[in-house]
Amino acid sequence: MRGFGAFRDGRGFDITLVTLALAYLFVFAALPMLYTVVMSLQKIDMFTLGTLNRPFVGLRNYERVLHMPQAWRIARNTGIFVALSVLFQLLIGLALAMFFQQEFPGGSTLRGLFLAGWVMPALVVGAIWRWLLAGDFGVVNYLLASTGIVHNHIFWISDPHVALYSVIIANIWLGIPFNMLLLSVGLAAIPGDVYEAAAIDGAGRFSRFVFITLPLMRATLGAVVALSIIFTMQQYDLFAALTQGGPSNSSNVAQYWSWQLSFETYDISGGSVVAVLMIIVVILVAAIYVRSTRLEQRV
Amino acid sequence: MRRYLLLAIGLLLTGLYLFPLYWMYVSALKSGRELFSYPPRFIPHDIVWSVGRVFVQHNMATYLSNSFLIAGGVTVICVVLGTGAARVLVRYRSLWVDAALFAILMMQVLPSSLMVTPLFVGFSELGLLKTPRLAVVLAQVAKVMPFYIVIARASLAQIPQELEDAALVDGASRIGAFLRIILPLARNGILVTAILVFLQSFGEYVYARSMISQDSLQTATVGLSSFLGPNTSDWNGIMTYSAIYVTPILLVFVLLQRRIVSGLTAGALK
Questions:
Q1: What is the pTM of this model?
Q2: What is the CATH number of the domain that holds B172?
Q3: pLDDT of A10 higher than 60
Q4: How far is CA A242 from the centre of its chain?
Q5: Which residues in chain B have their CB less than 8 angstroms from residue A29's CB?
């Protein structure tokens, strides 16, 4: 009886609640992650897929995948994709957050409307951008041409030199609201009298931004950059809607390639190899982020 | 005067940002000839209403109800499993709690397109792919539950511990105090978080695409992608489909905008 009483009224109840959630995540997230590592070390083909008894081949899969001709191009694309997406999401997000920090009627409502981009399914966002960026009839090309920025239409989706950038543009659009929202929270936390004191001392707009806003926003900026990196490395839907990694891998990135290997060429162990390498990077970024926010809270 | 100048700039920026949404709706209303006119018309002249045709032709009723079922299942499991865990993680402050939170946060960052490989193989070995929508629900819960716990925790943290203690002194059991005192007080926060989880799952794509092979069980995202091939030209159809799909999402968003913004900001930076 005592056991049941503890369950109803003691810490047992609390432990049960947490354990249920953690057990679920263990079974459906942690175990699959470990399973990826195992599969990346195994030889898997159509015949051994259904069985558990698959031969281990050491690091041979890693060697094979890294020697594929497209591997380095995809690694480079992934780097460009993450770097440019995060940079522009941050710059535009910060500029918008600072603009909406000013007091004016309807300001907070307008800022909230930006989140409409965030609640949209990313696949639909990709479809819309594909139409905006269409080569012959796309409105983006029209605007660029009519303002004289370009003379010939850019074939955003089919030109191997720009295909990656079309996905980056859509991804920046998708990430702006979240960046802006988090940066607004950070900006609002800076006490107003700091700025007033600096203004009395004769600091101009620019020096106030460089010497007050940026240093005081350091923790927020770090968190936002880390979260943007993580979200950008999760981006799959935009690639599926816009370029499918093409033409000939010119816009392919690791998280899309891993899926292609597993589900288009049925190279499960190859897909697992890419997944393992990518997951290591994601977890490293996340661990740095969590560590820095914990440290920040203790200070 | 300055305030109204700022308002004008603010309206311009918001309009510029939301232009893709406007373009989706406009393109959904344009006739084929007008859609491919160059220069493009920013305001349609002859409006074509193709909602009914697209809805029927592309089986949207089936796709949308599958998406709805999957998102509903994900939300229910998330709320049932996540709310209690979030509450406990507010109550205690210890190394164990920190470790649990850390583990939960780590699970959140795993990209779906990478996790789908082991989940697919594992589920096929367990025979779960015979019920593919359930498989997608199980996978998606693992994806969004960390988010749910983190955000719900922030709104549960606002309820003072004293209220629960008082109920316990009055003879309520822990379960009773949780169900009758804490849950009603945190109702709004939990509801908004649940809606966010629902919206995210309503737009889920990778798991559905990879695990569901039968067209009649497929979701609205996969239905959309099936006519997004390399040489697609039915942009009126695609934009109409998109508009039908996202209008309910946008309506829910507009209605709950304030709450969503405050819920996210409270949870995201903790």
A1: 0.91
A2: 1.10.3720.10
A3: yes
A4: 17
A5: 107, 110, 115, 142-143
Range of the domain at B210: 25-36+46-268
Domain parsing of chain A, residue ranges: 71-251
Q: Which of A275, A82, A257 is nearest to B115 (CA)?
A: A275
B112 pLDDT more than 90: yes
Identify which of A18, A223, A287 has the shortest CB distance to residue B85: A18
Q: Tell whether A132 lies on the interface with B, counting CB pairs under 8 A.
A: yes
* Residue A8 host element (H or E): helix A2-9
Are A84 and A171 within 8 A, CB to CB? Answer: no
How many domains is chain B partitioned into structurally?
1
> Which range, of A95-99, A101-105, B2-6, B104-108, averages the lowest pLDDT?
B104-108
Q: Classify residue B14: in a domain, yes or no.
A: no
Interface of A with B in 13-52 (CB under 8 A): 13-15, 17-18, 20-22, 24-25, 28-33, 35-36, 39, 49-50, 52
3-class secondary-structure state, position B30: strand
Phi, psi of B111 (to 5 degrees): -65, 135
CB contact under 8 A, A104 and B112: no
Is A7 near chain B, with CB under 8 Å?
no
Q: Does A100 touch chain B (CB under 8 A)?
A: yes
Residue with the bigger pLDDT between A174 and A192: it is A174
**Structural domain includes residue B13:** no
The full length of chain B comes to 270
Query: ∠ at Cα B197 (A114, B160), nearest 5°?
Result: 95
Backbone angles phi, psi at B201, to 5 degrees: -75, -25
Q: Are A29 and B124 within 8 A, CB to CB?
A: no
Distance from the Cα of residue A11 to its chain's centroid: 38
The pair of structure tokens assigned to A8 is 């109803």
Residue A1: pLDDT band with limits 50, 70, 90: very low
Comparing alpha-carbon positions, the chain B residue that sits nearest to A245 is B230
Residue A116, chain B, CB below 8 Å: the answer is yes
Which helix (H) or strand (E) is A23 found in, with range?
helix A11-25
* pLDDT (0 to 100) of residue A3: 47
Answer for the pair A27, B105: CB distance below 8 angstroms, yes or no: no
**A15/A140: higher pLDDT:** A140
Chain centre to alpha carbon of residue A79: 12
Q: How far apart are CA B248 and CA B253, in angstroms?
A: 9
Fold of A71-251: MetI-like fold (1.10.3720)
Give me chain A's average pLDDT, please. Answer: 88
Q: List the single residue in A100, A116, A125 with the smallest CB-CB distance to B18.
A: A116
Amino acid at A74: I
- Yes or no: say if A135 and A141 are a contact pair by the CB < 8 Å rule: yes
ipTM of predicted assembly, 2 dp: 0.91
Give domain status of residue B18, yes or no: no
Secondary structure of A26-85 as H, E, C letters: HHHHHHHHHHHHHHHCECCCCCCCCCCCCCECCCHHHHHHHCCCCHHHHHHHHHHHHHHH
